[in-house]
Each structure stands twice: as structure tokens, then as C-alpha cells.
Specification:
The chain is mainly β and 214 residues long. It contains one helix and 15 strands; from the N terminus they run E-E-E-E-E-E-E-E-E-E-E-E-E-E-E-H.
Length: 214
């Protein structure tokens, strides 16, 4: 597994994508070159063997999601998802779908074709949010202006808790990881005990067989 980062050349203002290993070693310092200024937030995502990157149009304020080969950096489809009406934007991939924050909410697209599927409204979030993370049937969005994180149902768009986390200072990026519930730990522990018991029984049987043979 490698890390992909959108960066900006301070002199030219051009954006580019770099690749690193998870130990921090540089794989390719210029995997994808000559992007327009990358959008703030999580403007890049990995989908299988491809990279999806937000490429904004500084003239009209729209943005395009472009698709690149994650190994060579070659352009697969420069207009994979075109003319998105976004402000502070983020992108995430989950369950074969691409999620993009926009002014009208979270826009959902097919990860294989780029076809629009639906829009999940996120009322009260200016610009649709600046950070985005998906876990199962929940989507989490940062609200830069309000300093909050909201949680929404990925299927209905209904707010589960629009103020899940409050009191943050200009939140932008967000990531989420599944943590096993205590009941899961209990099950795993039970399986471990069962495994030990089975091994002990097998060992006892072998000892008995050895004694009988003698």
C-alpha cells in the first residue's frame, strides 16, 4: 500500500501528485504533473488501480474529477466526472461509488463509469463540506465554517447527527476507520479460548495413545 498526495508548486502554481510508501520513502515525486491548483480538502482518492483527483477550473469555479493510472500516472480519463459545481471539495470512494462534496450536498457517482447516481443533501453546510469520509452506510462531513462534523445516512441522505462533533477550529480533512465493538472482542476472545481447549484435548489424546502403546 502506498500514499498519494496532491501538492502545489509554489513558483508556478501548478499542481501535481506524488507517491510515497507507507514508510515515507519516495516512489515517484512527480507521478502526475501539470494539474491545475488542487482543491483544498481531500481532493484525491484511490479506486482499485486508479487515482481519482479533483481538478478545478479557476475560470468558472467548477471542477472535474480526472482518472489516472495509479502505477504510471498516465491519464485514463481527464473528464471522468466533468463540471462539478463545488466549493471546498472532497472526494471518497466506497462500495463501488464515488462521493464528492458540492454546493448542493454530497454527489454520488458510479466508480466504474462516472455516471451520476444521486445527491445526498447536507443542509447547513456551506459549500457541501470540506472533508468527507465513508464507513458502511454512514458518511461523515466536516463543516469548515461551523467547526463541526455531521453524520448522514448514505442511502437516504437523512441526517443521523448533523452536529456529531462540535467546537472544532476550521476542520478540513477527515478519515474514519472501523473499530470492533466490545461484543466482537468478546467473540474473538471466546474463539481463542475454544481453540486452546481443542489443542489441549488433542494433546491429551496423543499422550493417552502413547501410554496405551507402551
Amino acid at each position: 500500500s502506498n500514499l498519494f498526495v496532491t501538492s502545489v508548486n509554489g513558483s508556478s502554481g501548478a499542481g501535481f501528485i506524488q507517491e510515497f510508501t507507507t514508510s515515507g520513502a519516495t516512489v515517484n515525486a512527480n507521478l502526475v504533473a501539470s494539474l491545475e491548483f488542487p482543491k483544498p480538502g481531500n481532493g484525491i482518492a484511490v479506486s482499485g488501480s486508479t487515482l481519482l483527483a479533483m481538478v478545478p477550473n479557476p475560470v468558472d469555479g467548477t471542477a472535474t474529477v480526472s482518472k489516472f493510472d495509479a502505477t504510471s500516472g498516465a491519464v485514463i480519463d481527464a473528464n471522468f466526472i466533468p463540471e462539478l459545481n463545488v466549493s471546498l471539495s472532497a472526494i471518497a470512494v466506497s462500495g463501488g461509488q464515488v462521493f464528492v462534496t458540492g454546493t448542493s450536498g454530497i454527489q454520488v457517482f458510479d466508480a466504474a463509469t462516472g455516471t451520476a447516481i444521486k445527491t445526498i443533501p447536507t443542509p447547513g453546510i456551506t459549500g457541501g463540506g470540506s472533508g468527507l469520509a465513508v464507513l458502511g452506510s454512514d458518511v461523515f462531513v466536516t463543516n469548515f465554517n461551523a467547526g463541526t462534523i455531521g453524520e448522514y445516512d448514505i442511502n437516504t441522505g437523512q441526517a443521523i447527527n448533523a452536529s456529531l462533533v462540535t467546537g472544532l477550529t476550521d476542520p478540513v480533512g477527515i478519515a474514519v476507520v472501523a473499530v470492533p465493538e466490545p461484543s466482537t472482542f468478546a467473540v474473538l476472545a471466546g474463539l481463542g479460548v475454544l481453540g486452546v481447549a481443542v489443542l489441549r484435548r488433542r494433546a491429551n489424546r496423543r499422550e493417552q495413545q502413547v501410554v496405551l502403546r507402551r
